[in-house]
Design a protein that fits this description.
The chain is α+β, with helices and mostly antiparallel strands and 225 residues long. Helix content is 23%, strand content 28%. The protein has one domain (3-222): Bira Bifunctional Protein, Domain 2 (BirA Bifunctional Protein, domain 2, 2-Layer Sandwich), CATH 3.30.930.10. The longest helix is centred in the middle third of the chain and has 18 residues, at 96-113.
């Protein structure tokens, strides 16, 4: 089976990158090598297929782009690592649910490289950390007494994917050292008041390029397994 080619693209335009992913997916054949693109974007809000206009509270000077990935509104900007896997799932031998699990697992393992414990929250794709103690290895015990599944948590990684003819594009974002203010202008992923954090906020001094390197290694191992 063809392998996985990993490309570091640097800071690239969001719309141009989406167009390139769509073109690759449309033109790929049964023997095309799967790709993993790692990059950053200039500030942009992206609205997924389930997105609602009211979740963009005050975009200001930051453009809002409609896109065909799953999910709702999120923010991309410098200091955030974007990972775009272009995988033929039929050839790889696993389904979409397993694919999402592997994406999340790659983020969890990347965070563990810096001794941060990442957590999944049921029915809320992405990875979260404990705000009071992101280095605690204790498992989550469920929603708070008021039913809030995000009580005490901050979102550090968002997922939004598209699968067309068994092939994936779009992907995930991992917050490293970025300006988090734009998240206050939206309801991240459609959740009112959801706290968003990055590695810098929780006390980890890591360069985005170093995090991209580790994330690329983890994704490469999990997606080609």
């Amino acid at each position: 089976m063809p392998g996985l080619a990993i490309s570091r693209l640097g800071r690239v335009d969001y719309l141009a990158t989406v167009a390139a992913m769509q073109q690759f997916s449309a033109e790929r054949g049964p023997d095309s090598t799967d790709q993993l693109w790692l990059c950053e974007h200039a500030p942009v809000f992206t609205q997924g297929l389930a997105g609602k206009a009211e979740h963009v509270l005050a975009a200001g000077e930051i453009p809002v782009v409609q896109t065909n990935r799953g999910g709702q509104v999120t923010y991309h900007g410098p200091g955030q690592v974007m990972a775009y896997p272009l995988i033929d799932l039929q050839r790889a031998g696993y389904y979409v649910k397993e694919y999402v699990y592997r994406l999340e697992e790659a983020v969890i393992r990347t965070l563990a490289h810096w001794n941060v414990t990442g957590h999944r929250v049921a029915s809320a794709p992405g990875i979260y950390v404990r705000l009071e103690d992101p280095f605690s290895h204790a498992a989550l015990t469920g929603p708070a007494p008021d039913g809030d599944p995000f009580r005490g948590l901050g979102k550090i990684s968002a997922l939004g994917i598209k699968v067309h003819r068994h092939c994936t594009y779009h992907g995930l974002a991992l917050n490293v050292a970025m300006d988090l203010e734009p998240y206050a202008r939206i309801n991240p992923c459609g959740y009112v008041g959801l706290k968003t954090v990055d590695l810098h906020t929780i006390g980890v001094q890591a360069a985005p390029e170093d995090v991209a390197e580790v994330l690329g290694q983890k994704l490469g191992a999990l997606l080609s397994a």
